[in-house]
Amino acid sequence: MGRLLNGKRIVVTGAAQGIGAALAEGFAGMGAKVVLSDVADPEPAAQRVRDQGGEALGVKADVTELADCERMVAAAEKAFGGLDGLVNNAALFATLPIAMQDEIEPELWDRVMAVNVKGPWLCSRAAVPAMVRAGGGSIVMIATNRIFHGFPGMLHYDASKGAVLAMTRSLIRELGSKNIRVNTVAPGLTMSEGVLAREGIAERAPEIAASRSLARNQVPEDLVGPCAFFLSDQAGFVTGQSLGVDGGGVIH
């Protein structure tokens, strides 16, 4: 897949570290021009892409604010002349405490929904006009395999990612006529920096790996190829689909 994304102009949200940073770096290696966006400073991650010979721009933005999302898209158009792809990766997860449904504070529930549901909507809303100007495009939603399995302890997160899958299925009906595709990638628990910082994860890593058909731990780079496929012209007639990327942890 050396140049699968040659010339594609792609925004990745939540790209200061973890999955988002790995996606941006991987896409650049396939020939894409990438905008790394995050509420934290994404410039160090963007510089790493440039150090490897890729074209990258860092844009600090809050996905819960429409003006920030529009500024992010405008920066992509100004820097690279257009926008072909968006990966809605930004989400609250790694810092969320395990809590049963009656232990979740309503304020935290609202914050999770703002970032994990409102964020992908606003980013997609901001991106669509730019994609129309480019002649079409591809949006990739990042969900989780938890929504196909049913796990206790993170109802706010699971509900938000279930909404992302529903959003994908509705958006294709609105955006198909504009030649914009929308698909979902559903990872398993991925050993990003944030996840590894959670208490007990490192100790449970062998157990987590053993639960998969492909018995190893998932890393951010495992998401690069599947997302790149959906963003590429090779998936030009693929829309509204969900792809589990979890080593066979959940079969759906």
Topology:
Elements (H helix, E strand, L loop, with lengths): L8 E5 L4 H12 L3 E6 L4 H9 L3 E6 L5 H15 L4 E4 L17 H29 L2 E6 L3 H4 L5 H21 L4 E8 L5 H4 L4 H10 L13 H8 L10 E4 L7
Helix pairs in contact: 1-2, 1-9, 3-4, 4-6
**3D shape:** globular
Strand content: 15-25%
**Domain unit count:** 1
Overall radius of gyration: 17 Å
Structural class: alpha/beta
Helix proportion range: 40-55%
Give the CATH topology: Rossmann fold
CATH class: Alpha Beta
The CATH superfamily is known as: NAD(P)-binding Rossmann-like Domain
Low-confidence stretches: none
- Gap from first CA to last CA: 26 Å
Strand order of the largest sheet: 3-2-1-4-5-6-7
Order of helices and strands: EHEHEHEHEHHEHHHE
What is the correct CATH architecture? 3-Layer(aba) Sandwich
Please state the average pLDDT score: 94
Please outline the major beta sheet.
Answer: 7 strands, parallel
List keywords for this structure.
single chain, 252 residues, alpha/beta, Rossmann fold
Can you describe this structure?
By secondary structure, the chain is α/β, with parallel strands linked by helices. The chain has a single domain (9-244), classed as NAD(P)-binding Rossmann-like Domain (Rossmann fold, 3-Layer(aba) Sandwich). It contains nine helices and seven strands, in the order E-H-E-H-E-H-E-H-E-H-H-E-H-H-H-E. Strand 2, helix 2 (43-51) and strand 3 form a beta-alpha-beta unit. The longest helix has 29 residues, at 106-134.
